[in-house]
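Kindly review both lines to help learners:
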Amino acid sequence: MGGAQPPESSLENRETASPGRPGRRAVAVPEPYATVLAAYTAALARAPVSDQTRRTYASKVRQYLAWLADSDLDGDPLADRAARDWAVRDYRSHLQNVLKREPRTVNNALAAVDDFYTRHGLGPAAAARASLPKTAPRALSHRAAVRFLREIERWPSPRDAALALVPFYAGARIAETVGLDVDDVALSSRKGSLRIHGKGDQIRRVPIHPPLRKALSGWLEERPDWPGADDNPALFLNQQGGRLSTTSAHTIITTLAEAAGLDEKTTAHVLRHTFATSLVRGGTDLVTVAELLGHSRLETVRIYTQPTEDDKIRALDHLILDE
């Protein structure tokens, strides 16, 4: 294969042993829970879910089983339904009060534990979810978004630039972004669309915004010079010619955000929230926003109508001061 070689970069070579937790090793699980975990991961491997879901659920269930192995339990939570309920409620309290996890993180863990118990044959636990705050998900402010876009504009890698703009301008999840194939991109001289493979094997088409069309065109011009370009259908390749992983994509996006000088950690999910928040605040109806995001329930996107933390801070500017 001729042409220039892709630029050397360490951004995509930071794979970790524990998904979503860069630099952390997987939690050790003693017997008999290790055998139970192995059976669960085998069942997940056969389930019609995304690879990202498999990794996330396996990681969260591993943490739950490790906690079980180190806890004083009332009964056997792997065989008795009442003991299961007590254990999951205690684990929820552990996540909230000891580990100080955010409500959404707690609920994600409980969803994984419910899936584990369902596949284990006991069914979901009778344990209430943590209450979610009535605040819109964190999105970039207008100023932060502009700084991020300007950093992308001067970034030397067309692949990284296109990668970062897919969640920002198309609202794609990180797994959906790296799951794109070249033939999922339809470009014409003035418009185009992305065919995004979402959760539950649902497919949606999202129009390509002009800045994203420019970035994708730039990457597609360079892509033939990369290893694996002739054999791998993946839109975003790594330097070995394989499909770019979610971990590497996450690292690329957070590194771009750090280079832009953004104060808080900016992930692909924050970019997706920025996409949704911009549409809702711009007056787009919730049905359209839900379709673009790949949500089947309108209730899921109503959260973007809630005030953000910045909204609450700005509201206090109207209070009377005696200075």
